[in-house]
From TrEMBL:
Record field: transmembrane: 25-41, 102-121, 127-147, 178-211, 223-241, 312-329, 341-361, 367-389, 398-418, 424-443, 450-469
Entry keyword Transferase: yes
Domain Putative mannosyltransferase YkcA/B-like C-terminal as annotated: residue spans: 513-592
Lineage of producing organism: Bacteria, Bacillati, Actinomycetota, Actinomycetes, Pseudonocardiales
Start and end residues of each Glycosyltransferase RgtA/B/C/D-like domain: 79-234
Name of the protein this chain belongs to: Glycosyltransferase family 39 protein
GO BP, sorted A to Z: lipopolysaccharide biosynthetic process; response to iron(III) ion
Amino acid sequence: MTALLAAPAPRTTVAQSPPRWVRPGVAVLLAATAVLYLWNLSASGFGNGYYAAAVQAGTQDWKAWLFGSLDSGNVLTVDKPPASLWVTTAVARVFGFSSWTVLAPQALMGVAAVGLLYLTVRRVSGPAAGLLAGAAFALTPVSALMFRFNNPDALLTLLLVAGAYCVVRAGEKASPRWLALAGVAIGFGFLTKMLQAFLVLPAFALAYLLAAPTTLGRRVLHLFGAAAAVVVSAGWFVALVELWPSGSRPYIGGSEGDSLLELALGYNGLGRIVGGEGNMGGGGGGDGGANTGFGGATGLTRLFGDSFGTEISWLLPAALLGLVAGLWFTRRAPGTDRVRASLVLWGGWLLVTGVVLSYMSGTVHPYYAVALAPAIAALVAISGHALWLGRHNVAARAVLAGMVAGTGIWTCILLGRTPDFVPVLRWVVLGLGVVAATALLTGAHEFRRLVPALATVLVLTLGLGTLAYTGATAAQAHSGSIPMSGPVSSGMGMGGPGEQSTDGELAELLAGTTTRWAAATTGAQAAASLELASGRAVIGIGGWSGGDPAPTLEQFQSDVANGEIGYYVEGGGMMGGPGGGSSEIGDWVAAHFDATTVGGRTVYDLTTGTTR
């Protein structure tokens, strides 16, 4: 039993070709993933208009591309670092700005992430487990949601999987080069979504420290080198922003002191975990309360609750059981055992990230759980494959039966949360789980003719429910700032504070301007809507939360005096209350310029040169 999960993985050599089914299987996996993530993609329009507007700005101005500005006039940036915008803007610059070029890069990132996960798991457990891991990852509802959307989470997840692949390669021959490449991936993950990328570092370091085939001193030295790679690959842009004269670059949106480092440690760092100004979970409820768009109540059950449950938890019970069993069965394996090292890597990833998401009391959204999907899929594949190989052992069969039965029961419960969605499916999956678990426990595997049928039932139990839910997710259009998976689009996905539709008459008015900024309005999301409708730069006064001091009243007055802003449009909104001079600007405009109505919105012409 000790060596049950410690058996060496199947490896191919020049003289030993892979089985014939491997290449067609990988081709089908990647092609099916591409179809799932790319099909009818433009139905979601520009997805998250906030980030789409930044892509549009980046296609119009190089500095906006570099810093991730919301507008091509470079008043302020979005409240995340710009790595994901760099990629999407590059595509939009080459092929033109459109819904497709905004959303397709994330879909292709998803295909790449699935392929990388297959390669990573295959190196430890063989091609069958690799295919199972890739399919489980691709068919997780939150994966389909995020890889068909333009939030930074898509690139972050790809980079995390790339980092895991490099760690596995590094652990095979104690390679400092591969470990440094893992550090580079995590460093660029920081430039994608800041400190969330660092949650996998404890697992990566522990897996290498335990299993790399070299002396302890060299392992530690290699880890220091990888840490330096993280610092350099993330720090170059932080240094660039900090050293660049603030007067000639956009204000760093979301920060209190125009600092990217402060943004990482504050609003996008500890603020997300402990809450605070601009980081109120559940719209100000601290622990999220019953607001599913903001994660629900904190605690270890959050990932199974109404908010996160159908996004990520379909295979979570099986992954946790497989992790515990795998670590127990390999407890006396050699120190360099690769299966145990992989369990430590993926298990540590799952536990650290899962606990953080479970107890975050600041801003948290269910789609953050996409970062858990690769770890869950890998754990189920690696442990499940090893247990299947050891199915002649009673203990192995019992654990595998528990994983399958637990998945069937939990899938039945999750599908019951949307009772109108294929009602019979929950009972089919439950029945398959019972049949598979019973067959395992009673020794049906001893009959060779029954093995293919048993394996099929196992796979169907693990994947049928999530396949249906993921297909329903892909069939829905998603937009706004808080998309959620499922057979019905969530109302939370319709938009965040301040996002409004733009009337055609108003869009035409702004499109005809020749000033540096077509208009200004309160709030970044309202500005993004105007930008996308008109194709022109719009100042989002106060940024995402309304609290950014950009522009100040004095700066705004100077720009108006210089004829650089065409109009002021009322009707924006903000989360954080009056901040950054946003109310002062609106009051000043109302006191000095005449109002008119265009497309149902109150508009002030700032170029007339006449004030009241």
